[in-house]
Design goal:
With 518 residues, chain A is mostly helical. In chain A, 76% of the residues lie in helices and 2% in strands. In chain D, helix 2 packs across helix 3 and helix 3 packs across helix 4. The radius of gyration of chain D is 23 Å and the shape is flat. The chains are: A mainly alpha (518), B mainly alpha (116), C mainly alpha (112), D mainly alpha (91), E mainly alpha (83), F mainly alpha (156). Chains in contact: A-B, A-C, A-D, A-F, B-C, B-D, B-E, B-F, C-D, D-F, E-F.
């Protein structure tokens, strides 16, 4: 058991990779065998994720290190060296938190896919791509090496675009996939340039080592700018959010949910860069306020444009973009005040980080429900829907839970995290809190519109059937998370969010020390 | 010679960026991405060069120069980055082919069903 | 344990839910005080529209577009601009990235 | 107007990148080669490979190579999926 | 040493010329061939920079395979870039 | 590309292809001694393969090589590489268990310039072969699928 715990971080990445390589081979044996294998590997991955997170949280979020190919495996520095020479995984509270989010979304999306993709061709490509995407997200969240992060970023991008364009008989999906891939490529290359600049100056690729070396030199700042913009693009921060609408809107429904997790992993990378990599060097208040401005823009553009949409998935995609704004707002307030460290800065970090898991659950639930609606009604146009609630009672109820939670209506989980963001951003500047609350109200209006147009009213469509059981179960799983996190927020804030926020806000020294010692 | 190779690498990146921003053909955009990719690879390898160094391979290396080898890490990184570049290019081009099949055009300004 | 305290205020969802359910119970109680002799689907519950014919339910359904036309109309200036910016053209996506990158560089150079 | 603004931003970014290239360590004299010197000195003893680049690619940074192989695998799956031909309707 | 530097500068300048041609050609096939030429020169430059491993990879992948993929894709789409 | 080319082109292509194959496999085999390795060798073989459709036409290339077989070989290569990574899990993932062990590929190498010992470098030669197989078949698959797929219903 102990060996399993020790190797859990790498197994968490290797298991989905193994699944991705094995599934095409066993797919020859028929779809039942394939689905069984996929299910087993998903559960295995999820339990490994739980194990990793449990190990880290048992140590209250202190970073643990896994060095690839070293003997012994926690030997970060060979004797006499001050530079880590091997790739290493470094898992701290924040990583553990992100891993749990990804595992949750992964289980829900895979379960949902079993029914959603039952009669589609290409399952032997769909599930491997999904596993690759998951492995890449886990890798991004665990790695302590900048180039390794870039590699996982690229795997995530390529697998995601393969999945977005997975239905090539729809021209729009190809358009979305091309646009997304082009933007992913550009931002990936920005990361690579930044990495080159950092390597050229400091001769290392390890995040902890670089963090101990970067200063406020001009080259380091150029690298920082490139990293911020590239990771912001991948996370879907306005005004670079436009790919996100196309991608979330056109991808198959379960993939949209996983893409949200992938965007959050990029956001995690952004936070890692801001707080850990450049945590000591950068005291640029202007950058913090710029991030806050971007987050407010993201919020506002997301909700207002959502009001106009006719396509149900594109509408939810705008909602998803606006939620990225909330996370960035919370953490941006934390970043701006990280020099002076007032109490509300930490609360803001907690709010922003807590909102990540809430967003993954609600948006995932909404995307899955929208997929069920699309499948049942054969259309995504809200103007052609109506009265679906008569035939799809469960879907309607679950959609309502997701929508209310996303709009921040108590007692669901969206409210608890938004409350933390409102109060702390009010302390930073009342205008921010006002905009955040206004956006929440608009979001409620948006989802009233969807619910009214799709589920209420007289039956407009014939032959509508309730979503299949597998789809309902996966939605129910996310809904349970939404409700439980809403009813017992204190427990989760204490156990999960606070270690994560501490790891970012105060944990830089511990992060560096875990690698460099001393 | 100064930093001429670095400058050339960055110029390649800039040319690629120019293509992405101001060219109108989807395949031209892919060419732009490839140019950036090439530029970054050149940049990485140039970072590791040592004047009058030799390749980091000990087989039949001239013993006199054996302590002056160029840095190997950027070369390893570049190998990975080259394959990643090929993967993205292939994927982008196949999307472009299917887009052409559906839309009948490769003009960026006409491939915009997803808007608003 | 189940509530959160931000340092400025506290939030306990269980208390809130209990209150909410209490209010619902009160509302139901008030509703129960109403007349019980109405029969559903008879003339007693039929809508009376000043003597006009009651329209078919299909015609009464408000489509998704129509729900907030007033708000969209009021903000038409903003919406015209916002829609114009979401062109769907890939070059514009890149342009936004470059412009943002330029701003970030300025901020880093100036605010150092 | 819009195009001019984009062009201005492009020129500005390009200037920054060129500036960065000029400010780097002089070409041919890496400023911090400690990690690479370790590889050059120890790769033969630790991995037994004469080619240091191979030693790095497969041993010191083997995990990156696994990732790179995965990238290729993902691209193949993506390309095959895109060209798997027309089938089924929207639902 | 001087001769090597001259070769290197010439190679770098030619790379730039090839890249500029790849960007400016209206005929996409010519553009792709210019890109392939630039790639080949970059591979030569890698060799000059004492990176034979990368040079082989760049010559095989960057110059040969990428070009093949571009040409295949081009066959099925429009060859000329529209004005 | 259209149809077949002249006899001269075909003959030259045949010879070149054989040469490229030999060179590619040499590059893979000696990856730990001389410039090259799994990637480079695999890419060289695959790029030689890209000659085939030029010389013999796409149809002939399709006849020689089956894309789905290639894909499965690629998966086998990936699995082999992953398994080689797992080989060291007793100590840590990707630990080079065979290096300097004295057994297969475990010969110790003297420090400094030498003439190269093929029987060295531990797991590295195996990894070279796994990656070589993978890259070779993977790149071939991409080219083949593009050739077939793009031709299927494009409006030429």
């Amino acid at each position: 058991m102990n060996a399993l715990s020790v190797h859990a971080p790498v197994l968490l990445v290797a298991t989905p990779l193994l699944a991705a390589f094995v599934v095409p081979l066993v797919a020859k044996l028929g779809s039942t065998v394939r689905n069984a294998v996929v299910g087993v590997f998903t559960l295995l991955t999820a339990s490994l994720a739980g194990l990793v997170a449990a190990n880290v949280l048992a140590g209250s979020g202190a970073p643990s290190v896994y060095v690839f190919g070293a003997n012994p495996l926690n030997l970060t520095l060979p004797s006499g060296m001050h530079v880590p020479i091997r790739i290493l995984f470094e898992v701290d509270g924040m990583s553990a938190f992100m891993i749990l989010i990804t595992a949750l979304v992964a289980v829900a999306a895979t379960l949902y896919s079993f029914s959603y993709f039952k009669e589609h061709s290409g399952g032997e490509m769909y599930y491997p791509l999904l596993f690759l995407l998951l492995a890449a997200i886990f890798g991004m969240e665990e790695t302590g090496d900048l180039f390794n992060f870039f590699v996982f970023l690229e795997i995530a991008g390529i697998a995601a675009c393969g999945l977005i364009g997975f239905r090539p008989w729809r021209g729009r999906s190809q358009e979305a996939a091309f646009k997304t891939m082009a933007l992913y490529t550009l931002s990936g290359l920005f990361v690579l340039i930044a990495l080159g600049l950092l390597y050229g100056q400091h001769g290392g690729l390890n995040i902890a080592y670089l963090s101990s070396r970067v200063g406020a030199g001009m080259l380091d700042l150029v690298a920082l700018g490139l990293l911020v913009v590239a990771l912001g693009t991948k996370a879907g921060v306005a005004p670079m959010h436009m790919w996100a609408l196309d991608a979330y809107g056109e991808a198959p429904a379960p993939i949209s949910a996983v893409l949200v997790a992938s965007s959050q992993a990029s956001l995690y990378g952004l936070f890692r860069v801001l707080f850990t990599l450049f945590g000591a060097a950068v005291s640029v208040a202007a950058l913090g306020w710029f991030l806050i401005a971007l987050s407010v823009l993201t919020l506002f553009v997301g909700v207002t444009m959502a009001l106009l949409q006719k396509d149900i998935k594109r509408l939810i995609a705008y909602g998803a973009v606006s939620q990225i704004g909330y996370m960035l707002l919370g953490v941006g307030v934390g970043f701006t005040t990280s020099g002076s460290r007032p109490a509300y800065g930490f609360v803001a970090m907690q709010g922003g980080i807590f909102h990540m898991v809430n967003d993954a659950a609600c948006i995932g639930l909404l995307f899955l429900a929208a997929g069920a609606v699309h499948r049942a009604s054969g259309t995504r146009d809200l103007n052609r829907m109506g009265g679906l609630g008569h035939d799809m009672k469960w879907t309607a109820a679950l959609f309502a839970i997701g929508a209310l939670a996303l709009a921040g209506v108590p007692p669901f989980n969206g409210f608890s995290s938004k409350l933390l963001i409102y109060e702390s951003s009010f302390a930073a500047s009342p205008i921010l809190a006002a905009i955040a609350i206004l956006s929440s109200i608009l979001l409620l209006a948006v989802f009233m519109k969807v619910f009214q147009a799709a589920f209420l009213g007289p039956r407009l469509l014939e032959n509508v059937r309730e979503a299949s059981r597998g789809m309902l179960v996966s939605m129910l799983m996310l809904a349970v998370v939404v409700v439980v996190f809403g009813l017992f927020p204190g427990f989760f804030v204490d156990k999960l969010v606070t270690p994560a926020a501490k790891a970012l806000w105060l944990g830089r020294d511990a992060y560096v020390r875990a690698v460099l010692g001393g | 010679m100064g930093n001429f190779p670095f400058v050339v690498a960055m110029l390649l990146v800039i040319l690629g960026l120019y293509t992405l921003l101001f060219k109108r053909n989807l395949i031209k955009l892919v060419i732009g991405a490839s140019l950036i990719e090439t530029g970054v690879n050149l940049f990485l390898v140039a970072l590791g060069y040592r004047t009058a160094g030799i390749a980091p391979i000990y087989t039949y290396a001239p013993p006199a120069l054996a302590d002056r080898m160029v840095l190997p890490t950027p070369q390893a990184l570049t190998l990975t980055s080259i394959v990643i570049g090929l993967a993205t290019t292939a994927l982008l081009l196949s999307f472009a082919v299917v887009i052409h099949r559906h839309y009948g055009t490769l003009d960026v300004r006409e491939v915009k069903e997803l808007k608003g | 344990m189940n509530g959160i305290n931000s340092g400025f205020g506290a939030w306990n969802p269980l208390v809130w839910t209990a209150l909410f359910l209490g209010i619902v119970a009160v509302a139901l109680a008030i509703r129960a005080l109403g007349r019980k002799d109405y029969k559903k689907k008879t003339g007693q519950t039929k809508v009376y529209l000043s003597g006009n014919e009651e329209p078919e339910p299909e015609d009464l359904h408000v489509r998704g577009d129509a729900l907030y036309w007033g708000m969209v109309e009021a903000l038409s200036g903003y919406y015209r601009r916002a829609r114009a910016l979401h062109t769907g053209i890939l070059s514009d996506y890149f342009a936004w990235i470059i412009v943002t990158l330029g701003i970030v560089f300025v901020l880093l150079a100036v605010g150092r | 107007m819009k195009k001019a603004a984009v062009f201005a931003a492009f020129v500005f970014v390009a200037a920054f990148l060129l500036f960065a290239a000029g400010r780097l360590h002089p070409f041919g004299e890496p400023s911090a080669p400690a990690m690479d010197d370790y590889f050059l000195a120890h790769s033969q003893a630790e991995t037994g490979a004469n080619n240091v680049v191979t030693a790095i690619v497969f041993d010191y940074r083997g995990f990156d190579t696994l990732g790179e192989a995965t990238v290729l695998f993902a691209a193949i799956l993506g390309v095959v999926a895109v060209f798997r031909g027309p089938r089924e309707d929207e639902r | 040493m001087i001769a090597q530097e001259i070769v290197q500068v010439i190679t770098l300048v030619l790379i730039l010329v090839g890249a500029a041609l790849a960007v400016s050609f209206k005929d996409l096939l010519a553009s792709i061939l210019a890109l392939a030429g630039a790639s080949l020169l970059v591979s030569l430059e890698f060799y000059i920079l004492q990176a034979p491993d990368v040079a082989i990879a760049e010559a095989a992948i960057g110059a040969a395979l990428t070009t093949a993929i571009y040409v295949i894709a081009l066959r099925r789409t429009r060859r000329k870039e529209k004005e | 590309m259209r149809g077949e080319m002249s006899v001269i082109v075909r003959t030259i292509a045949r010879i070149t292809y054989a040469l490229i194959l030999v060179f590619g496999f040499y590059v893979i085999l000696h990856g730990h001694l001389t410039p090259g390795g799994g990637f480079q060798g695999g890419a060289v073989v695959a790029s030689g393969f890209a000659l085939l459709p030029v010389a013999f036409g796409a149809a002939a290339a399709k006849r020689y090589l089956n894309p789905s077989l290639m894909r499965h070989l690629e998966e086998v290569g990936s699995l082999a590489f992953l398994a080689l990574g797992f080989l060291g899990i007793g100590i840590s993932f990707f630990y080079n268990v065979l290096a300097n062990s004295g057994s297969l590929f475990g010969a110790a190498v003297p420090f400094g310039p030498n003439s190269g010992i093929l029987n060295s470098a531990g797991t590295l030669p195996f990894m070279n072969w796994a990656v070589g197989l993978k890259v070779m078949t993977g790149l071939m698959t991409i080219v083949l699928v593009l050739l077939i797929g793009a031709g299927k219903e494009g409006k030429d």
